[in-house]
Amino acid sequence: MKAIPARLDHLVLATPDLAATVADFARRTGVTPAPGGVHLGLGTRNYLVSLGGTGYLEIIGPDPEQPTPTGPRPFSVDALSTARTVTWAISPPDLDAAVATARARGYDPGDIHPMTRRRPDGTLLEWRLTDGDTQHPSGLVPFLIDWGSALHPSASGLPVTPLLSLSATAPDPDEIRALLATLDTELPLGEGPVGLSFTVDTPRGPVTFV
């Protein structure tokens, strides 16, 4: 099994304190994440780092410059006490077909929703992704994303920390493996508490985040 899943789009490192987590990433790796943009109306913003190729890391947390949203912030950042790798995303060649195939195989990855983010230069990015209560609550089964005609974040001159490996643990790894198969992807899995970890190559050597 490959250490890096095929069609990996991005990893999500969620945090209750975005500034502190970005500073910690920079201190540990020697690479400073780039501002990604603001999720208008959702109360979050993000910083980004390329993982090499077309993959990237999203560090997401509350945006103090936005009013408190009417609903929960994405990735349950308000429920976190510390930064944590909460989930990952893959980009299938055909998002609609991938959702239909997964459902036919017995797993519903969720409905497809449009999303937007305002980049620091004012550009509005628009994309689609799966989201909903039917997604596996562990975060170990990726959500699906389609950037359409938008410029992919990895193509916007981000600082780079090449991804060396991505792995996970779960109480029942076979359950997760079966769900991953419905999406035509895989992930190195061991038995243990639910968790995702990844290792990146940096000017300061390999660094692992959980």
Structure in words:
The longest helix is centred in the first third of the chain and has 12 residues, at about 20-30. The mean pLDDT is about 95. The protein has helices at about 20-30, 95-105, 175-180, and strands at about 10-15, 35-40, 45-50, 55-60, 85-90, 110-120, 125-130, 145, 165-170, 190, 195-200, 205-210. The radius of gyration is 16 Å and the shape is globular. By secondary structure, it is α+β, with helices and mostly antiparallel strands. The strands form two sheets. An eight-stranded mixed sheet has the order 2-3-4-1-5-8-7-6. About 40% of the residues are buried. The chain contains three helices and twelve strands, in the order βαββββαββββαβββ.
Helix content: 10-25%
Ranges where pLDDT stays below 50 over 5 or more residues in a row are: none
Structural class, from helix and strand content? Answer: alpha+beta
**Average pLDDT metric:** 95
Taken in chain order, the helices and strands follow as: EHEEEEHEEEEHEEE
Characterize the main sheet: 8 strands, mixed
Q: What is the rounded distance between the termini?
A: 20 Å
**What is the percentage of strand-forming residues?**
35-45%
Strand order of the largest sheet: 2-3-4-1-5-8-7-6
| Rg for CA atoms | 16 Å
What form results from the Cα inertia axes?
globular
* Count of helix runs: 3
DSSP E strands, number: 12
